[in-house]
Specification:
The complex is a heterodimer. Chain A is mostly beta strands. Chain A has no helices and eleven strands. In chain A, a hairpin with a 6-residue loop joins β5 and β6. By secondary structure, chain B is mainly β. The radius of gyration of chain B is 14 Å and the shape is globular.
Chain lengths: ~110, ~110
């Protein structure tokens, strides 16, 4: 079972360029999330989606956008990357109907903005 | 502002030792507290706690929640080198739907031979 698949695994990007991190899940979970993980700051929620067609802002949404056209895909776009967006990005999903709070995480995408 | 604080930030123990990891929180509308283990990449789920005083146990790992004092502990007995990881505590808020979690910064555990 693949679970959550993220791409690319790592990327170096010039400041000012745009970038889309891809996330696909095969568990038919209704909710999906994007977190960034930085040393000393832990995991912080960027954007989330409780169901296809809806999205919401998390703790650190500025500079990022998401879309949820269908259940399986939840891409994260950086329109004009800045060095402070250098981070490891984790996509996650959950089944809100299970009422367990458990998130399933992808393997992460390491992004370096120079 | 919601806050989740973990301690210690890091610790090194020897195989066979018992460790206790701490997590305190301040959040409005608390729903549950979760523990995750992060080895190299993706965090993996360990426990979810919603009620005070009820211990959750899985093998050598156990966890308990105190909703009055707003903290949780994660115990690992007879530690093994495979327990080396970052342990993350997260709190879920109720109402409004979704499993949006606020994470602590983690405790890095290293178990040496």
């Amino acid at each position: 079972t693949a679970g959550i698949t993220q791409a690319p695994t790592s990327q170096i990007l010039a400041a000012g360029r745009s970038m889309t991190l891809r996330c696909t899940q095969d568990m038919r979970h209704n909710a999906m999330y994007w977190y960034r993980q930085d040393l000393g700051l832990g995991l912080r929620l960027i954007h989330y989606s409780n169901t296809a067609g809806t999205t919401g802002k998390g703790e650190v949404p500025d500079g990022y956008s998401v879309s949820r056209a269908n259940t399986d895909d939840f891409p994260l776009t950086l329109a004009s990357a800045v060095p402070s967006q250098t981070s490891v990005y984790f996509c996650a999903s959950s089944d809100l109907g299970q009422n367990t709070g458990e998130l399933f995480f992808g393997e992460g995408s390491r992004l370096t903005v120079l | 502002e919601d806050k989740v604080v973990q301690s210690p930030l890091s610790l090194v123990v020897h195989e066979g030792d018992t460790v206790t990891l701490n997590c305190s929180y301040e959040v409005t509308n608390f729903r549950s507290l979760l523990w995750y283990k992060q080895e190299k990449k993706a965090p993996t789920f360990l426990f979810m706690l919603t009620s005070s005083g009820i211990e959750k146990k899985s093998g050598r790992l156990s966890s308990i929640l105190d909703k009055k004092e707003l903290f949780s502990i994660l115990n690992i007995t007879a530690t093994q080198t495979g327990d080396s990881a970052v342990y993350l505590c997260a709190v879920e808020k109720g109402a409004g739907g979704g499993n949006k979690l606020t994470f602590g910064t983690g405790t890095q555990l290293k178990v040496e031979l």
